Amino acid sequence: MGVEVIRVDAAVWGAVGAVLGAAVTAVAAYLGPARAARIAVEHQARERRERRAHEEIDRLIALRRTCRDWDEYLHSVYSGARLGGAVPSEDAVLERVNELRTAVRKASDEQMLDGVWRSSEFVWLEKASEAVLRLVVAPDEEGLVTVVGLTLERARQMRQRLYDEILHRLADIASDALDGPGDPSPDAPRRRLR
Q1: Of 159, 154, 152, 173, which is closest to residue 121 (Cα–Cα)?
Q2: 149 contacts 155 by C-beta, under 8 angstroms
Q3: Among 160, 99, 150, 96, residue whose Cα is nearest residue 127
Q4: What percent of the chain has pLDDT over 90?
Q5: How far, in whole angstroms, is CA 146 from its chain's centroid?
Q6: What is the per-residue pLDDT across 115-124, written as a single tens digit (0 to 9) for each?
Q7: Distance between CA atoms of 2 and 161, rounded to whole angstroms?
Q8: Which of 17-26, 107-116, 150-159, 184-193 has the highest mean pLDDT?
Q9: Average pLDDT value for residue range 166-188
Q10: Distance between CA 191 and CA 194 in Å, rounded?
Q11: What sign results for the dihedral spanned by CA atoms 172, 51, 112, 93?
Q12: What SS3 class is residue 158?
């Protein structure tokens, strides 16, 4: 019994190599652009998330700043009245409070873009404004300085609660930015600000 040896000509091997090379090239030509397109879509989605996060941060900072401005103005008028210093007129206080109210409402309304509704959340600033205005109108009323002081202290506590809420939201945004979908390092440790 003999062993038949099949000789394959070099031309056949060349043809087989050409067919395999063409197949590999075709697969690469198909998969390369598809992968590049997927990477581009992921990059655009990441940029949109980052832009929305920065916009939300700006809105949170605006809300914090406007509430602080209102609260600090009320405290400055109260301090002036309590220490016997210069106190603005009733009209000046009303005008400034209206400006500050408008700024806080605008900042609050802009938060609706983030799905946050704050319809009557700033009653504490309104009550503090009424108390300070009462002090401006009747600075000699007995016990009023104490009442206004307590009202302003309550407003400061409510402001701190708002600040805590804003800080928690900022921590969530930072966490989402670090661990968000499409992040190149999903195993990265979470950073918490709480």
Answers
A1: 159
A2: no
A3: 150
A4: 44
A5: 38
A6: 888 767 789 9
A7: 95
A8: 150-159
A9: 69
A10: 9
A11: positive
A12: helix
Nearest to 58 by CA among 105, 118, 120, 114: 114
Task: Judge whether 194 and 168 are in contact, CB under 8 Å.
Answer: yes
Q: Which amino acid is at 129?
A: S
The answer to whether 79 and 85 are in contact (CB under 8 A) is yes
Structure tokens at 4: 């038949």
Burial of 156 (0-12, 13-18, 19+ CB in 10 A): middle
Residue type, 69: D
> For position 140, what pLDDT does the model report?
82
Question: Is the pTM value of this prediction over 0.85?
Answer: no
DSSP 8-class letter at 9: P
To which residue do tokens 């406007």 refer? 66
Region 96-103 average pLDDT: 96
DSSP of 64-75: HHHHHHHHHHHH
Rounded to a whole number, what is the largest CA-CA distance in the chain? 128
Q: Can you give the length of the chain in residues? A: 194
Q: For residue 147, give the nearest of 78, 55, 58 by alpha carbon.
A: 78
Taken in order 152, 157, 158, 162, the sign of the CA dihedral is positive
Intra-chain end-to-end CA distance of the chain, in Å: 85
Q: Which two tokens stand for residue 52?
A: 């929305």
